[in-house]
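Deliverable D2.4 — example input (structure tokens):
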């Protein structure tokens, strides 16, 4: 018997081939990224879980010890749980392997999935991400498309950290596009435009 043990929202899209896995930031929930996802991929199916860790009542996808300092055992455990959820949800809803669309903490758990369970994702859009693990085993990400977008003035996730993540994923074979916008940690219209054109380009390549 399959278990779908994340609170989540699912929206069936008109497109058979495209699904997005929406991963919110700290304090968000399964509804947060739906408007963004609809802007960048109007016909995709959307699978949007709520993070199960609570930090002062705010949902997250894994525990942290301080801002930017992660409980890495928890990162590993939660990334695997989320990957199991995605696999079960795909069977239940009949959707394609999703592209993750993650913001902040959600982008970091998506990066952890790429490093630990790469076969569950068809690609990833990582907005304000940083490396989720200090050490990880090499994985085969041959050609997995990844867009990483950071903010030049982000006080929470320095662009250098995102650049490090970009190099790591590239070293494992991912096709990474890394962009820095003149913004902070918050999302901007420029993020939407970049994500939209990256996704359209991916659709025409596949
Ligand atoms: C994290 O905890 O994943 C990052 O520090 C980003 C955040 O959620 O503030």
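Example output (designed residues):
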């Amino acid at each position: 018997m399959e278990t779908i043990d994340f609170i989540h929202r699912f929206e069936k899209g008109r497109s058979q081939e495209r699904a997005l896995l929406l991963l919110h930031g700290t304090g968000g929930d399964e509804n947060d990224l739906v408007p963004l996802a609809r802007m960048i991929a109007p016909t995709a199916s959307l699978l949007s879980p709520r993070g199960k860790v609570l930090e002062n009542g705010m949902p997250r996808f894994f525990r942290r010890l301080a801002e930017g300092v992660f409980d890495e055992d928890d990162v590993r455990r939660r990334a695997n749980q989320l990957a199991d959820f995605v696999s079960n949800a795909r069977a239940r809803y009949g959707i394609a392997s999703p592209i993750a669309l993650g913001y902040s903490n959600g982008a970091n758990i998506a990066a952890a999935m790429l490093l630990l369970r790469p076969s569950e994702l068809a690609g990833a859009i990582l907005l304000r991400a940083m490396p989720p693990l200090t050490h990880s085993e090499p994985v085969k990400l041959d050609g997995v498309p990844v867009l990483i977008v950071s903010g030049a003035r982000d006080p929470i996730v320095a662009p250098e950290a995102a650049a490090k993540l970009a190099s790591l994923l590239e070293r494992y074979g991912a096709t990474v596009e890394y962009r820095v916008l003149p913004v902070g940690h918050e999302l901007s219209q420029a993020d939407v435009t970049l994500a939209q054109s990256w996704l359209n380009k991916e659709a025409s390549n596949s």
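The longest helix spans residues 72-93.
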